[in-house]
Predict the 3D structure of the following.
Amino acid sequence: MKKLILGIGVLLLVFAALTYWSLSSTAETFKTCEILGMPDVDKINFRQYDSVLIAASTLYEANGVKTVMQGEQYREAWSTPIKVPILFLNEKENPLKILEEGGGKQTHSLKLQKEDGTLMTLRSVTKDPSPLVPKIAETLGIENIIVDGISAQHPYAALVVAQLSNKVGVLNTRPQLVFVPKQKFLSDYNHKYGNRLFLLEYETEGNAKWLQLKNVDSLIDTDDLQELKIKHPSKVELSTESLVRARLFDLLIGDWDRHAKQWGWAIENNGDAVKAIPLPCDRDNAFFNLEGVLPSLISNNAFLPEVQSFEKEIDFLPGLISPFDIYFLQDIPLSTFKKEAEKLQSLLTDDAIASSFTVWPQSIYELDGEELIAKVKNRRKHLVAYATQFYHEIKKSERLTTALKGSEDIEMTKEEMGCFNCTDK
């Protein structure tokens, strides 16, 4: 018995040592993109170039110990250089006005406005998770466990998701990958936003003309939709088919982080009534790939059931049910879930899936393309079963008693807080 206890003690010590070695291997908490062949970036006149060869971040490069303890993730995709077009914000053919900074915890963003009033945003590809690092982690020198978690996100997932969305009729923000050099137009924002890699995409509020949908001219956030519903309960309805399809699409691509602030709504005017069509945004966690000893221990179903790695099959579907689903989907019949799952299966042919990944540079496709395509195809095969289980998990959930994320300041009755259509009853 003593030998057994001693052996277990030794193993625990070895595990603790490897853990600390892995977590302390990188002291930095944030590092922006790296331009190849241009050592002194601040002296470059980027107007002489139309593109740059750039790596999203080399912060997540790892030795053997770190790879075992914290996983391979998408480290190579982050550090692989790709060719990216350069964007100057005040070009005559498409001038943009800076309105304000966004309020994301990890993503740095700038809200922009085109001459016709259309809103766009620059969302940083490189993330800054330092605001999420607890003091105790800093004190112990193990903040890297949070910082390194970003490597589980694919830096270019949003580009593929937009292509897949187009194939299945799910709205998207049409992201474009751009490099924004320091420029006079950025003024005081140069230090934080100059010489960085961004996704330039449409906002989920404001002018909706860019969607080119009949009778749709405005976009609103979820909290504004709730207030509109409370004010005009009989005149505001959801495009239930579109919403169910969008959520099943999330399951297909493994996007587990879909809270209420990650949706906009295109408002379709039909006489006195309006219909809200969902517009998903923020695809940071699509194809999320969590590997390694430590992440696997932390993200198990008992502790963080919603944080799931993108595999060929969904690991734990009950963990993917969110308050958003209970609020918006609980009263939609099973037939709609099955019908939309079958539509997705029909629309997402093998060719449709494969062609969507060609939006990536060849070097990125060679790293991750074929593996992800195989996983999407396999999930597509089981989508009707997933849809059925998804419906039953939502149906048996209790009505909400707290506000959705971002809607805490809305004055609502207990009934109105329970579900979107509760105001009709």
About this structure: Confidence is low (pLDDT under 50) at residues 10-22. Residues 2-23 form the longest helix (22 residues). The two ends are 66 Å apart (CA to CA).
